[in-house]
Amino acid sequence: MKSRQILAIFTLLLAGLLTSCEYEFIVPDVPVIDPEVPIKFSEQIVPIFTSGNACTACHKTGSTPPDLTADRAYNAIVPALVNTADPESSSIYWYAHPNSSSHSWKKYSAAEAAIILEWIKQGAKNN
Predict the structure, then answer these.
(1) Most buried residue among 11, 85, 99, 127 by CB atoms closer than 10 A?
(2) Domain ranges for the chain
(3) How far is the C-alpha of 73 from the C-alpha of 126, rounded, in Å?
(4) What is the pLDDT of residues 16-39, one digit of tens each?
(5) Which residues contact 122 (CB under 8 A, 6 or more apart)?
């Protein structure tokens, strides 16, 4: 009798656990970027390359090209890695894109990729 009660309680608990599962899908945090507001290379793009454990860990002067240090990044990527006619095809955008398999060490966040893409769409200005 006691084993039936334990089995019944266990079954109810298990049924409760299985039916109470809720899946929460996480949507990447991609900023809404106003195309009318200029993206500033020196203030918004360079920090993507240089802050924290960023791209410049490898892509620095005298190391792996392109040189993405603050004073050399623009000349290293424009026009060689930027295609303003087809921004999504720009190497600087897709190579370290979150969905790319090309670059295995450091990837842009979805927000960083969106900023870089909008900067290219705005003409990839050195501002």
Answers:
(1) 127
(2) 3-121
(3) 10
(4) 666 655 656 665 566 788 999 999
(5) 35, 38, 39
Q: Is the peptide bond before 66 cis (omega within 30 degrees of 0)?
A: yes
Burial class (CB in 10 A: 0-12, 13-18, 19+), 76: middle
**In whole angstroms, what separates CA 39 from the centre of its chain?**
17
Q: What global pTM score does this model have?
A: 0.74
| CB proximity list for 6: less than 8 A, separation 6 or greater | none
Written as six digits, the tokens of 39 are 């993206």
Answer for the pair 90, 123: CB distance below 8 angstroms, yes or no.
no
